[in-house]
Amino acid sequence: MRTKKWKWSYMLLFTTLLIGSLLMFVPYLWMILTSFKSNSEILTASNHLLPQEPTLSGYKKVLGEVPFFRWFLNSLSTSAIVTIGAMFTSALAGYIFAKFRFRGKRLLFVVILATMMVPFQIVMVPTYIIISKLNLVNDLSAIVIPYLVSAFGVFLAKQFIEAIPNELIEAARMDGASEFRTFWSLVLPQIKPALSALAIFSFMAAWNNYLWPLIILNEESKMTVPLALVFFNGQNVVNYNVVMSAAVLIMIPVVIIFLIFQKQFIKGLTMTGFK
Amino acid sequence: MKKALLLIVALMLVGSLALAGCSGGGNATGETGGKDGDKPIKLVWWVHENPSFVEANKKLIEDYKKVKPNVTIDLQVFPYDAFVQKIRVTMNTKTAPDIVQMFGTWVREYAKNGLLEPAANGAELQAEVYPAAIGGFEYEGQVYGVPHEFNMENGAALRYPKLFEEAGIDKDPATWEELIEDAKKLTKREGGKISVRGLDITSNDSVVFYFLALIQQQGADFWNQDQTQVNFSTPEAEKAMQELVDLVNVHQVTDLTKLGTPEEPYMVFFKGLSAMTTAGPWTIAEGHNTFNVQDFDYMPVPSYSDGPAVFSAESGWGEVVSKQSANAEAAWEFVQFMMKDENAFAWNLRTSSIPANKKVAEDPKYLESAPIVKAALDVLPHGRWIGPLADRDYFFKVINDTYAQIVYGKVSVKDGLKKTEDDINKMLKSKQ
Amino acid sequence: MSKQQVSERRFIFLSLTPIVLLFLVFSVIPIGIGTVLMLFDYSPLSSSVPFAGLKHIRELLSDEMFYKSLRVTFTFVAVAIPANIAFTLLIAIGINKIRGRFWKNSFRTMFFLPAIAPLAGSAVIWTTMFNADSGVVNMALGMLGLPSVDWLTDPSTALLSIIIMTLWADVGYNIVLFMAGLDSIPESLYEAAELDGASPWHVFWSITLPMLSRTMLFVFIMTSISYFQMFPQFQIMTKGGPLYETYVLALNIYDQAFTYMNMSYASAMAFVMLIIILVLTLIQMRIGRSQWEH
Prior knowledge:
heterotrimer; C: mainly alpha; MetI-like fold; globular; MetI-like_sf (chain A); transmembrane helix (chain A)
């Protein structure tokens, strides 16, 4: 009798979760269906879920008339450089803060950490002013350079590197390894999980970044993916089926990469939560 | 193995960034300055997103290429909101474009700050163009740009004759009261909500223009003597605002459900969801080209009082040249090319806008080619320049916000107008 | 030894200098400028920057729109954060009870997927979904026989619509974090409780929740900091309207800075946001620390 009751509540739980997760999928379903609708269908305010005359015209417009691949490339290159840069600088700085002593170390670390607390709204205007004085407005480097260092990354790296026993490092030094070599060949491999977490975190943050590119980029050909989608939306307010086509094309690679690297994603995310 | 992978990836990325940097970078505001002739010149031209305008602009570029093959013009299009911001932020930097298709009412602020290159033949241009149109482009005796059109969002409305027939209305409304009566007959409802609007005046522009026009048609004005402050505390202003609010709350011929969405009233009209919609003539081109709707026309909106249908008009879209441009001379040459009668004619036709160029507007051939804009051309003589609004978008925004608040019952007409007056005057003062 | 020290010093100097420089130029100095910019009259169109004293602060304190933004932001946060935490905790617990690796992971993936998409992209998609005439939400309502709602244009539903969208896009993160937190609770505790005959409710309150307190604190703080600064969906879906019902502080600051060019004024508002976030975080850490000590 007890097992029956158990089964019933479990079934309920399972079904609820199933429905819930399918509901989560609805916006994507909508996006895909709408992407196959034709201009005229949208313009005549008809009210059907499924496309009445499925067409690839939206996709043709996206792939033919707009610098779609350029947007992708912009996002990919900037995000990748930011990620590699942030990983490297965070690990290096984290190593120094964890294993070395020098005057003002404590203060410097606290200052760096404190910058994490500050909302973007405080820095966006001054950073904009600085960038424009450097004449880098509307330049892709403007969305890369400020993000090459990450306070969060430094924090994370320091936490993990602290766990490395000092003896290992001393031993490497005894063996005659240079400081940099010690860092590269000994320390880095030891904190691989933290590094991959940071990599995922940085990459996603860079890829999804909207506000800063919005402020700093003017030209369509320089835009990154989220910005370009919104921009494209602004140009196709009426025939939003085209916008959905663009959205689909943008989402596909993102989803594929996620599904492949799922484990690392999840692991990385949890790691950022636990230290 | 992992290291090699990392290296490869890094190389790929450096490569792609270099690629991105190469073709996109060096935001060239003209590479080689100096005399044109044979030297290749590149001009960057910023315009806002309006499909018909963009088409007309592209055609101009094509035509100019035939005349001056060494000049390449890079057209960059921005959605309206982004456009306003981008100009504000960039005109003072080295990355400013050479030419901007700027809205007339904005020009003064940029001219004042020394960011624009004035025309060499200012007096000539002033003679060619209607004063109300070029008004906004003038500052301290110099002419900083050339308008192509009047921003006339007044005096006429898009309309479906078929819906008029079906409602049993056989003639155009001749008075404001008749207009409202007709609107009530044309409004259709479904399940308590409006399914077809009888008369839609809820666009950002219409609300302000009709508010001001209604004041002026009662014989009053909203400016003080030297046009430095506005006055909305007059009984005429109250009546004007009340009239517009009543359209939603009392006569119920339209509603505010589309406010804030990218769907503007003229788009709603072309989707078949309105019977009459006040809009500028440029929407006609949109209807024909973008929405593929042909069975509509453009009817005159009667005056509010017995007097003539006076109204405010703004300097419309026109070209200005940036002072930062390395090729200011070449840029102005292109602008002058646009002003030539046959080019202006073609541009206005394609965008169904009202020509600012006197010769084109008065040319009977223009009316022949675009009979549908007759209503707008007819009211042209009644137009007055709207005045120095300083921050045009703020001016319009405040009035629109107040309108929405009054409609939703958040504030009374009197209080709403007082606040609007205060806010606008504060803005005017700060920009003096 | 000295040679070692020398090489260490050199290493520190060479490595840290460029990094610190970047931090300085793009973090520390902007923060410094950002906090004092409100005391000056800065305009990108002119080259002079006169001192303005408390002018902008006074302006701010008498600005109705500022208070409106504060109210909207606090309303958003007060509704969205508890909703988020409640949903994610429940879903995480639910998924945790599922047997079988495959289903467990699949559910987690399905709930997490929206979180990897750019918020701006999701905002665009949801705007079309909420379209009063042709959007799928009203279509669904129609099928159920319910009247359609002007989700994004009705002042009473606009903020709610954005909250719904935000939750959809964001729950993934916290679900993953909570699931990890739940994972770390030793089975032995649950087994002991079962032996004692404790009800599921009791188990939840006395075992699950306390053991999750550290995760909970982290989730709370991160979500709060993030939600106070939320921007894309407010700008893209409603532009702050209708009637400013969705005009959060972040959007107000952006408009002031880059649409109206009142950069000094925007800085004053940003300063207020900074204070709010700092205070909130400190309060949460205080509470968290004292609870944890239990």
